[in-house]
Fold this protein.
Amino acid sequence: MNVLILGGGGREHAIAWALSRSEQDPKPKLIVAPGNAGTAKLGRNVTDLDIEDPQAVVRYAVGQCIDLVVVGPEAPLVAGVVDALEEEGIRTLGPSAAAARLEGSKSFAKDVMRRAGVPTGEWAEFTEEDAALAYLEETGAPVVVKADGLAAGKGVTVAMDLAGAREAVHECFSGRFGEAGHKVVIEEYLEGQEVSLLALTDGVFLVPLAPAQDHKRAFDGDTGPNTGGMGCYSPVPVVDEEAFAKMAQALAAVVWQMADDGNPYRGVLYGGFILTEDGPKVLEFNARLGDPESQVVLPRLRSDLLELVLATVEGRLAHAEPEWSDDVAVTVVLASGGYPGAYQTGKAIEGLHHAEEVPGVTVFHAGTRESEAASLTTAGRVLNVTALAPTFEEARERAYEAVDRIKFEGMHYRTDIGRRAIVQQHGQS
Ligand code: GLY
């Protein structure tokens, strides 16, 4: 079976790694576009395919006899890549462009949640700056201001005071985010821990994966600017059975609402939840696997990922029950100097093999490319050092021992990834 994975980050390396461990005979052949130095070791990288051009992806998939496509990032989903592939009869993991609006439009997601009765923060939406500013005078702060569309992860501001909220509204309407900022959602600030729950869905049945907790701020102690994620762990001790069931119910309610609306949602549904005093509430949806969530969730999956993906795209999830390792997973992101601000690339990475000699450790590549002499850095987030172990204490020890063995100029990382899980286990949240 020829499998094409779209994307080139840590998530896509983790997907390729999990698919490469499939027990299917013969083993799937993996092609990753554009891929990175890590995926190059598991299959073939294709660097000249525009993965946001639906017709280019279809032409490539037909030409290469691709049997299955797994879409990593959101941009190809919103561009309609899944629709084009499915029209051609190529099985694809990911929602249609219309269903991917759950991620692509905050107001669309809120409307679906309202009609599905899913708990989420109070909100209002605006297409005029003056009306949005007037509403802020009513809500006060803290408050969350979101550009409605996709803004490369920069369109959401958690404003702790009114001046910051006004500035965020102005920024959206100033055109900085293009189309994405033409509509603004102003939302209640929810207090509590943030948890990600991802699920596979065939449009009717839903199979939740293991929960994970991301570390979004750049520096230790959850300080500094927001990033794409500096580390993650799974499972999440603060998520008890009741919270897990409520989060899974919320995802299922959305899937059923989308089916009722005649806009079925198939693929991966990612719920970002806040565990409030009144129970889990949805902060946002993503239409894909999370990054760096995938780098801790997939290594804990004992079942065959290829089987699960095929069951999803073929509408056979009713009887799927993934098995999970009892081990916990912690991943530490190694970033380029300066990230999430300006950073340099092209730095040689040393010590990768030595790092993977630490028991339980896998290094997922994110922003790397192969050169003759070494792997080189190509992006802000460079590597994800993932460790599996029976306890969070051991997983942290293993991950950081491996981190100590890796070097590239300017490398920085958080030293407290997974510490929160240990605190949660001791009953403080
Ligand atoms: N972990 C955040 C994301 O995947 O968007």
